[in-house]
Amino acid sequence: MGEQPIYTTRAHVFQIDPTTKKNWVPASKQAVTVSYFYDSTRNSYRIISVDGSKVIINSTITPNMTFTKTSQKFGQWADSRANTVFGLGFASEQQLAKFSEKFQEVKDAAKLARDKSQDKVDTLSNHSQESGRETPSSNQASSINGTDDEKIFHVEPETAVLQTENEHLKSTVEQSNTNAKKWETELQTLRENNARLVDALQESSANVESWKKQLGACKEEGDTLREKIAQLEVQCNEADQEKRQNSQMSVRVQELETELHEKEQELENLRKQAEIIPQLMAECESITAKLQTAETKNRELEGRVEGLQLDIEDSQQKQGNMKGELKKFMDLLDGKIDELHEFRQGLSKLGVDN
């Protein structure tokens, strides 16, 4: 089946500075995927991380590796084959704890696989030694119990098998010796890396203390900034109130300017009217004089009217008297006419009779 991922998380990847062996150098600009892979054909475990097309972690887990938590969200381990120290920064303590637990599980599995491989090598080596000790007795038994033909028939196949096993065991032992030398070299490298890691841990501890101090200073600075922000917010509120007041004042000023313009217009009109006041005064005096003359004439006319009214009343009284006399005259005239009429009738009667 090949290599398969068994656990995946996300973290910021760092590597120790190869020059100073003290400072961390970011290997990724942002949080990337970090995965544990298991190779079933080789029975091995690796930690792999890829940023785009760049492989930034390719670390095979060995039983001698140790994952160390240096802070609440940061952990690291040394890789002697890559000759570096990897560091991971996580977003939470839970992610760091889960990654550390998985590292220990993979490390134990790698140790178990190595122990099984060593037991197999030891078993093959013991089997080779036992086969070497049993070969003479088999030959002796064959020479005692059988003829030369039987010896050839029985001994040669077993010898061929034993020779094949011995050659296989020799190659296995040589491979084991080679692996042992490699492991000794790796052990020495791991010891050196462990010493470097101890130095790095000490430096990290010192850095942690420095970071704690810096964090305390940052907290104090943050508190100061919060106070300043609160003061600025109060000032901003006051400034907003002043702005609102200024806006209201601006509106009031515009209204006053409009009223002032209207008053100025009225004043200008009054000034224009004031220019014709002397003429109006002259006209007024002329009119007053005319009114006085008219009043005098009016009084005279009223006197005349009163005289006329008296005359009219006298004339009306005279007319009344004249009407009475005229009525008497008309009555008298009517009487006379009647008498004349009667006289004419008498005359006419007299004439007829004659």
TrEMBL record:
<dbReference type="InterPro" id="IPR000697">
    <property type="entry name" value="WH1/EVH1_dom"/>
</dbReference>
<dbReference type="GO" id="GO:0014069">
    <property type="term" value="C:postsynaptic density"/>
</dbReference>
<dbReference type="GO" id="GO:0007216">
    <property type="term" value="P:G protein-coupled glutamate receptor signaling pathway"/>
</dbReference>
<protein>
    <recommendedName>
        <fullName>WH1 domain-containing protein</fullName>
    </recommendedName>
</protein>
<feature type="compositionally biased region" description="Polar residues">
    <location>
        <begin position="123"/>
        <end position="146"/>
    </location>
</feature>
<dbReference type="GO" id="GO:0035256">
    <property type="term" value="F:G protein-coupled glutamate receptor binding"/>
</dbReference>
<feature type="compositionally biased region" description="Basic and acidic residues">
    <location>
        <begin position="110"/>
        <end position="122"/>
    </location>
</feature>
<dbReference type="GO" id="GO:0005737">
    <property type="term" value="C:cytoplasm"/>
</dbReference>
<feature type="region of interest" description="Disordered">
    <location>
        <begin position="110"/>
        <end position="146"/>
    </location>
</feature>
<dbReference type="Pfam" id="PF00568">
    <property type="entry name" value="WH1"/>
</dbReference>
<dbReference type="InterPro" id="IPR011993">
    <property type="entry name" value="PH-like_dom_sf"/>
</dbReference>
<dbReference type="InterPro" id="IPR044100">
    <property type="entry name" value="Homer_EVH1"/>
</dbReference>
<keyword id="KW-0963">Cytoplasm</keyword>
<dbReference type="InterPro" id="IPR045027">
    <property type="entry name" value="Homer"/>
</dbReference>
<keyword id="KW-0770">Synapse</keyword>
<comment type="similarity">
    <text>Belongs to the Homer family.</text>
</comment>
<feature type="coiled-coil region">
    <location>
        <begin position="166"/>
        <end position="318"/>
    </location>
</feature>
<keyword id="KW-0175">Coiled coil</keyword>
<feature type="domain" description="WH1">
    <location>
        <begin position="1"/>
        <end position="110"/>
    </location>
</feature>
